[in-house]
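Exercise: predict the fold of this chain.
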Amino acid sequence: MSAVAAGGATLGKPPRRPRGRPPGSVAGQGAATRERIIETAVELFAARGFHGTSVADIGARADVQPGALYYHIRSKHELLWEILRRYTEHALDGAESITTADLDAVDKLRRLIGFHVGIIAEHRREVAIQVRDGGALTGTRAAELQILRDKVQDCWQRVLDDGHRAGRFRSADRAVVNGLLGMVNMLYLWYRPENGDTVESIADQFCAMALDGLIR
């Protein structure tokens, strides 16, 4: 009678491999490779521009063979869409959470500004790509991205509308919303943490400027 090891494997024989994909399988590796490709595209699009970057450039920098690259991405335009969709959805999720919170309109606006400053600081490269190369998206993808961006702006508009109706804000004009978003979005041009800029201090100063002008 043969001896049996713990777990039921017969000594002298390799244990049976369980069916199904083990952890770290091809699926997991594929997801990691796709993320590496996307991060590489962000880096290159931000530095060289969408039109100045080829798919071959992305594959070479990400260390992915040309034949395997299209297994992970459909096209360079789909990469652009994925990059811009991700950060815009992040901005939308946060804005919607703040907008629907049980808070005074002034507190909501303060939180919106602080959150959006953090988003732009974290995603400066993506914002630069949006400003410079967002127009490269066409058709359905361009429309889908615009819908997401409009939803973000609608969150800000609702907060100002609510505050104006409650007598808290002097104005809820669309120009005010565009001005606030423009002020925060342009942060990507000059935000330099290495020079001492911090998200907290910038958010505080933006809030002071906005609220001093809006609160009755």
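Check your answer against the key: The radius of gyration is 24 Å.
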